[in-house]
Specification:
Largest sheet: 6 strands, mixed
Radius of gyration: 22 Å
Order of helices and strands: HEEHHEEHEEEEEEHHHHH
Distance between the termini: 58 Å
Number of helices: 9
C-alpha cells in the first residue's frame, strides 16, 4: 500500500472526502464516461461530493470517505501514480483560505481571526469550520476553497479550527456589474411586433422572467450550465414573439453576474442560446 493511499484512508476515517492528485496538483483525467466534462461536471450525483463514476473524475466530485472506493481496483492505478492527496473542504464542512504569498499572509494576520494554519509551498492555508461557495482571486494572492473545490492535503497544521467568519464570506460577494449587451443582444423587442407578445400577457412574461432570475439565483452548482439553460428557456418561450426587451434581458444578466458570471460569460451564453434557437 502506498503512503498516499494510507494517508487517504486515514483522512477518510476522520471524515475528509479524499481524492488523488497527479503532478502539478491536478486531479486525474475524467473517466471515459464523462470525458471532456460532457456531463457538465456533476456526473450522476447522488449527493454533493459523491460521484458514481467507476474511476476518479471531476476532481472534488470524485472525493469520498468510503474506504471500499478509495482502496478499490478502480482507484489503484491513480494511487500508484499519485503525487499528493487532496480533499474536498466543503464535503468535510470546512473552508480553506489559500494565501499564496507573504503579502496575502500579512493581510490575513491583520484582518482574519486566528485559526488552524498549514504551511504551503508558497504561503499558508487558513482552515475554518463552515462552508461557503468557492471563489478564486477574491483579492491579490487569496483564493477560497470550500464547496465544489479541492485542496491539497499537506500536514496536520497547528491550532484549533475557528468558525468561518463573516469577513471571509464577504470576500466572495461581488457587487453585480451593470449588464452589458453586444450587437447580438437586444436593442429592442425581438420579432419586430411592437413589443407585444401575441400569445402571452405581459404579466405572464414578467412572472416568467422573475422565475428565471430565481432559478439562476438559487443555483448551487454548475452555474454556467444553469445560466445557459435558463437563457435558452426564456428565449424559446418569448424570443420569437416580440415581447422580450432590454429590461428583461438586463434582469437576467444581473442575476447571472451576481452568481459570479462575468459579462463576457453572460454574453456568450445569450449568443449561444440565440444561435441554438436560430434567432
Amino acid at each position: 500500500m502506498s503512503e498516499h493511499l494510507r494517508t487517504a484512508l486515514r483522512l477518510a476515517a476522520d471524515g475528509l472526502p479524499v481524492l488523488p492528485l497527479r503532478r502539478g496538483k491536478l486531479p486525474f483525467g475524467n473517466c471515459p464516461t464523462c470525458v471532456r466534462n460532457v456531463c457538465g461536471g456533476r456526473p450522476n450525483m447522488k449527493a454533493a461530493g459523491a460521484c458514481e463514476c467507476a474511476a476518479p473524475c471531476h476532481a472534488w466530485a470524485a472525493a469520498t470517505t468510503d474506504p471500499a472506493v478509495i482502496a478499490s481496483p478502480a482507484w489503484a492505478l491513480a494511487w500508484q501514480r499519485a503525487a499528493a492527496v487532496a480533499y474536498h473542504p466543503g464535503g468535510a464542512g470546512l473552508t480553506v483560505v489559500d494565501l499564496d504569498d507573504p503579502a496575502a499572509i500579512a493581510w490575513a494576520r491583520t484582518t482574519l481571526p486566528a485559526t488552524r494554519t498549514v504551511a504551503t509551498t508558497r504561503g499558508e492555508h487558513w482552515i475554518y469550520r463552515g462552508t461557503m461557495p468557492s471563489a478564486n482571486a477574491v483579492r491579490p494572492g487569496v483564493d477560497i476553497k470550500s464547496s465544489a473545490a479541492y485542496a491539497r492535503w499537506l500536514d496536520d497544521g497547528m491550532g484549533a479550527t475557528a468558525p468561518l467568519p463573516g469577513a471571509v464570506r464577504a470576500l466572495a460577494v461581488k457587487e453585480p456589474a451593470p449588464a452589458r449587451m453586444t450587437p447580438q443582444s437586444l436593442t429592442g423587442p425581438l420579432g419586430g411586433r411592437e413589443g407585444r407578445c401575441p400569445h402571452r400577457t405581459p404579466v405572464y412574461l414578467d412572472r416568467g422572467v422573475a422565475m428565471a432570475v430565481q432559478r439562476i439565483t438559487e443555483a448551487r452548482s454548475a452555474v454556467h450550465a444553469t445560466v445557459y439553460r435558463t437563457f435558452l428557456a426564456v428565449l424559446s418561450t418569448h424570443g420569437r414573439c416580440g415581447c422580450l426587451t432590454d429590461t428583461h434581458v438586463g434582469r437576467l444578466f444581473t442575476a447571472a453576474q451576481a452568481k459570479g458570471e462575468t459579462p463576457r460569460h453572460c454574453t456568450d451564453a445569450w449568443t449561444n442560446a440565440l444561435t441554438t434557437l436560430g434567432l
